[in-house]
Amino acid sequence: QNNQFSPLKKYPLVEQFRYPLWQAKPVEPQQGVKLEGASSNFISPQPGNIYIPLGKQEPGLYLVEAMVGGYRATTVVFVSDTVALSKVSGNELLVWTAGKKQGEAKPGSEILWTDGLGVMTRGVTDDSGTLQLQHISPERSYILGKDAEGGVFVSENFFYESEIYNTRLY
């Protein structure tokens, strides 16, 4: 066992296992999936970006750590049965939370709207699973959410001020 790294204090160690890296598959889109216009440019596999199955986990946010010899890599994994759909405008954000399997409204979801530097505003979704938040919209922002079951989700938003009112037609 490698004792160079130890579990984080104050956080439970959920699971510990060994996985043969030579069996890992590259992270890539499923066959037939077209992502034209996607902001992530997730079109082709990147060397070293592999999929390691973690198994079914309870809803929540997990810090995953992988170690090989003296090397360590970490990432976060969000587990939730809720998705957040959003619409952003110049001064507000509309969020609708829904179950990802049945599409039912997810009331009581706690939502934070952030620009990545701090929380701009926050709220809780109503009985219809919606929430309207008022704030001047930055070009890029994120929704961080937690549903009533403890599931955690993230949504990225882009807002570009329209220049139509500055255009002159002759």
Q: Mind explaining what this structure looks like?
A:
- The chain has 170 residues and is mostly beta strands.
- The chain has 2 domains: 59 residues, no CATH class; 77 residues, Immunoglobulin-like (Sandwich).
- The strands form 4 sheets. Strands 8-7-10-11 form a 4-stranded antiparallel sheet, with no helix packed on it.
- The radius of gyration is 20 Å and the shape is globular.
Strand residue percentage = 35-45%
Instruction: Please state the structural category.
Output: mainly beta
Q: What would you say the CATH architecture of the largest domain is?
A: Sandwich
Order of SSEs: EEEEEEEEEEE
Unreliable parts: none
How many strands? 11
* Major sheet size, sense and barrel closure: 4 strands, antiparallel
* CATH fold-level assignment of the largest domain: Immunoglobulin-like
Q: What share of the residues lie within helices? A: under 10%
**CATH level-4 homologous superfamily of the largest domain:** Immunoglobulins
- Cα radius of gyration in angstroms: 20 Å
Shape: globular
Q: What is the CA-CA span between the terminal residues?
A: 74 Å
Arithmetic mean of pLDDT: 85
What's the layout of helices and strands?
Layout: E1 25-26, E2 50-51, E3 60-68, E4 71-79, E5 82-88, E6 92-99, E7 110-114, E8 119-124, E9 130-134, E10 140-146, E11 152-158
Antiparallel strand pairs: 1-2, 3-4, 5-6, 6-9, 7-8, 7-10, 10-11
Organism: Escherichia coli DORA_A_5_14_21
Protein name: Alpha-2-macroglobulin family protein
